[in-house]
Amino acid sequence: MLIVIIMSLGASSMCPTQKRTLSCLLAGRVGKRPKQENVQELQEAAVQLLNRHQNLSDLFLEVGSPNPCNLICKEYSGQKKAASESPSPTIGGSLLVNELRRKAGELGVPVAALSVKMVVERLLDLTGHIKGDREQVLLNSTQRVQLSVLFQSTRELLSLEAFCSKLFWQEYWRDQKQPMLEVVYHLHTQNILSLEYMLESENGVRSWLMSELKALCGRTATEEGDGVLQQVLSTVVSVLVRAVFEETQDSTAAPCRRLSQVCRSVLDDMLSWVLDTLNCKPTLQSGETAELWVQMFDASLCGVSVSPDALRRFFIHSLTHTLTYRPRLKVSDAIAMQREWSFAKTCRLLTSLFRKLAVIFKVEELLSHLQQVLETHEVNWQHVLSCLSTLLVYNPNTQPSLKELLSRLLSSAFEGYDLENMITAFLLARQGALEGPGVFPSYSEWFKMSFGGASSYHGNSKKSLVFLLKFLSDLVPFDPPQYLKVHILHPPYVAVKHRALLQEYVSLTKTRLADLKVSIEEMGLYEDISGAGTSVQPRCQARQDVEKAISLFGSTGRISATVMEASIFRRPYFLSRFLPALLTPRVLPVKPDARMNFIDSLKKAEKIPAAQHSSYIESCQRERQRQQDSKGVSGVNDDDNPQEVLQVQLQEHRALLTEGGSDGEVSAQLARISHTLSIVFPERAEELVSQAVIQLHVDESTFSELHNKVGRNVVNMILRSFCQSLLDASRISPPNKQSPWASQFVNILLGHRQLLTALLHRMWDLLHNQGVSLSAAHVLGLAAFVVHLHASQTKSPKVQLCPPLLPGPVSVLEALTTALPCTTQTNMLFCVRFCVAAVCYGLCRSESLCDQPQQYNPCSLYKKLLYLIPRLMPDMRRLPIEASGESEYVGANKQGEEENRGLWKSVTDTNTTWRKSAWALWKHAPFRLLVKLPEYQFSFSEWLAAELRVQRSEDALSDPDRQEYQQWACQQLYLPSPVDKGGCAGDLRTACSHILNAVMDQKTVCAPTQENTDHRPSEAGTCLPDIFSRLQEIVYEMELTSRSQRTQDKGHFLLDLISHRCSVTSDLQSISSELSIQQTLHTWNRVILALPAVMLVTVKTGGGKRTLDCETLMEHINQYQRKGCSPAGLLPYHLTAHFLRAVLMASVSCDCASGEMNKAMSLISLQCPLLLVSAGHWWGRLSPVLVSLWHRLTDGQPLPQQLQVLADCHLWVCSSKDGVSCPVPSAPPLLLAACLHCVWEGQASGKGIRTSLEMLGQLTEQHTQLLVFLLFLCVTDLLTTFLTPQRVKGLQRAQELCKDILTVLVDSADWLLLFKTPCSEKGLYQPVAVVTSDEYTRLMPLAFYSLVPHLNSEILEKTVKAPGFLHTAVLCYSSLIKLFMDGQTPCPVTEQLTDQMDLSYILTRAQQVLLKTISLTSPTSLSQHQLNQLEALCVDLDPEVAAALVFHLSSSSLSPELDFL
User: Fold this and answer.
1) Contact 1429, 1383 (CB under 8 A)
2) pLDDT tens digits for 249-275?
3) Pick from 319, 284, 297, 142: nearest CA to 224
4) Cβ-based neighbours of 1135, under 8 Å, separated by 6 or more
5) What is the pLDDT of residue 1200?
6) Contact at 8 Å (CB) between 819 and 764?
7) CA separation (Å) from 1432 to 111, 1339, 1344, 1374, 1427?
8) What is the pLDDT of residue 79?
9) CA gap 672, 666 in Å, rounded
């Protein structure tokens, strides 16, 4: 029976599908034998069988044959469960050992030696055919199964002490000169023989292991053996790392030290082999070979069997070895070659190695170790700088840590004057600058920040300055030109007394640049120097200078000072580079563009030689003819290849996002994209764009004109890629769970000035002109793009809109927000779609309000939603925006995450609408909490400004709906809201003030003088009438409230408001200030005319009486209204009527209406002469209005006395006009003069006027004031003809009227008081100073000499003899000369200009009259003090007049009078 079992077992050994081993079968049969005494018989039978079966190798296989299926599972799963579950050797193992002992006894050898021999023979049989073929470095599956069976039997022998592992290794190493590493791996993992013992047992094991490891790394990848290959390599690496870097108690023993040295040498040699592969410009195959070993630097592969501390020591050692490997390059070589070591140009395998070595360390630890290596070792500068670039690109926290390291290095360098720290700092800073501004500041910026100020490292002593300049001087022979340019254009700070030291360095640097054939003269006018960029060719730089100069010219209208200076001080560059680039032949447009205007301006300034300009014009004409002859011919674009590369890189970037690439891989890909963009847009990508201003032209046709086809294609490609990447990434995870790829994507774009300009133009065009055609996916992608532009605003440049829709340069987001108007239904709908997408993305991007929500939530877009959602969705008005409580959101993290997912789904779901998304957003807790932040509050003023821009005819709301919405906003939303939240706190006056300011601001914006009329809503089509209605509603409610609370005596906020707005301009002498005040008053007058007149006058209650208070109104008229009158000295009719209605209506509410009206009008005649003059002038039209109003309000009471005086004055002047003689009313002379002047305006100068003057001249002397005031009004008309070209025809008539009046006043000197400069010297005629404007008051000397020289000789002789005439004449003459010299005299622009309006003629005649007056004046007419004063005034202005004064009027002069005419 035993023979049958053994024979069947032998057969089964050949079948890999046998289910049971010999041990199992024997164990089963033993279990079935009921009698214990039969065991001895069974053993004897088996021995007899073994004597006949002498092949011990087969017997090994039979005894130990396991289940083949278990072996396969073990091979691929790596589990050791099958081995542990194998039955312990019992009878089968005992039989084998017994037979080995018997055989060993016959041979006279130890049992262990025999078993070793048998195992070695079997092992050689399995692997013997591989001896001559070393291309096979791994066993196949069959060999692996058989080897596992053999080693399991060997383990059984080892457990029975019938096998010697050390003897086995000696025999196997002797017979198999090049063992397979997999066999050794199995010996190690099956605990037969440790790899540590093998490494220290034989001298040749180290070299063999090296060759085996390289062979394994070079093995062609196959699906069958990849798992085993990874296991073998990771196990070997783990053993090596443990042997070297694990700290044990016996690690100091000699054997342990020897093992550690061997293992360390293997690890170092393998790493050196990888680095050698990189240095030899590896092919694809060699790169893949080395990459397999680089993958072993993985914490997850070694972390199971190696302690964390040992792993850290291993990685630090490997990093040090890499940084110090073959330090062939000197510092000078590093300076020269550094530009080729940027991240984009570094081998991917090397960057992968640095990434893996750095993954378990903090950035601070790595940079500290880097500093330590630099201080203690000779380093490979290429590896050191490439390592730094890898850290900067892959880890965003590297920049601040590197800045700190540079600061420490520079501080240490200047403290000990250490050149090594100095050069290290410069190399590290330059390397960081190579990676672009999104990663590290440019070299020029770093150099300025480090050495550009008095508090810099070198600013404390001369020794430090000398050290710095000596260091820079030593670098000059090795520095590339771009760094030398930085040092020249941004030199270090040097005190004035040490300037000579700096000049020596500058001279040396310029000499070096000349040797390199890089002339400073060839540097561009607007060249942005950055050490990181490649040097721009002079012709390219000249083209950039031209574009910049044209841009500045277009925005300012003037040739920039830089160009003008270059035309003088840098003439070689200007003539040989700048002008040829500017005058490049092209087809000139029909309408002159900015370039043509710029060329014309240079030509007029004589900066372009005439011959060169003529040649340019001829070349342009030939270019036009050539294009007409060859229409449709287009050239080949040289940039196609970079575009294709960029497209592939963008696709790879998208694939990394969808396939779960690591953050480092995404960052590396973006760095490569940035490098390609610098080729497509050959501009300095490292320019610090935050110091620049981008010109954003908002005209529809500008984008295609400014940017070529390549630029447009690249911009569209980038935006399309960003949108697609965002959608792909969002399908995998919401924004808050995504990597920072989007921010990094935007940051690399900010580093390319030309690209960023094109991007902004394209974005503005898409948002403003093509919003309706954009799909939901496009809107979401562009919204996210804008959000990230906002998040990177600290790195973004400022933007200047052209034409200037906003004052001054603004942020990128503010500029793009102007492309989202809310004026019509169409752009409202797109704006709300875009803003909902942007705010939803921003809220989902920031997980909670604790994460600084301002970073990803633009307040301008948020405010647009606060405006649009309640406007377009009435249901939202019933849901207040204030959140119920912050704790409800912040405290519930899980609930907040669910809300974020729901919000994001509402935006990305293809079946949703913008209304559903807006509804979800409006209810979202973080959205509601944002309004608690001040910058996110949409104030009442902002709401009014937005509402006033809406076009009523194209509004999304009908007239009734708009009225309902505006009433809700004013009465329910903003009126009860607190002031600190943008509301009015229930104060009707505050609400009224907000509306008034908004209306005035809107009217100012819509003024036709603005350049941006094409981009502003016209006043006629806005919601201004609706807002006026809301204002009137509030004013009416305020009036009712005031009456019920008896608070009429609180003062007038309306007049206070206009006083505040007009007082912001302090320089009243400035023409621009006067124009601004006039424009403000014009707007204000239109506003207050829409309000009840009674609000302008206060009714005060005191002593049980109610009285009028017109002080504020009169002060307003005197201080402001007189400056805006046109013509001067006269309020418009509608304004005069409004003011008088205010006084009349307010007086009715007093206890004695008639008495208060009389008091008010009397006070007006004394303190507000302008209103009095205007009332007298317009009384013919005012009378029926005021009389009817008075009778209605007082139930037919008679007119107040002062109003009756106005009526009497008007009746008197009408009678005098008709030639009827009647007594002069008892009225103020100024009022009589105003009424008479009004009647004369419609009457030609002739007999009627002279008759009236004769009648006035016959009156008593008290009416002389009437004539003087009448003269003043006529003089005002005369000055108006000088200032107003439309009235120039009235000059002759005005002069005739004035001369007629002077004829009557010839015997009186009162009229001279009108021309006295100080108001106090005008005596009774002081009211004239507050009737007309300050400009007219300054021009009174011009009026004086426009009249006096034209009097006939008889009247003139009488006039000059009047007391005080000479004094007044000299003062007027000196003032007139000063006006002329200061350029403040008017220059009428008219075709009918006569000598009487020619200022030169007037001055000549004035001098003649004055000299004659001096000759006719008695010396006693002037006191010596007056004479000295007049002489001092004229000595510098007109010495001839001064001499005449001294000659004729000095008390010591006895000369006879001379006629100077």
Assistant:
1) no
2) 555 555 677 888 889 999 999 999 988
3) 142
4) 1085, 1089, 1121, 1174
5) 93
6) yes
7) 138, 22, 21, 10, 9
8) 33
9) 10
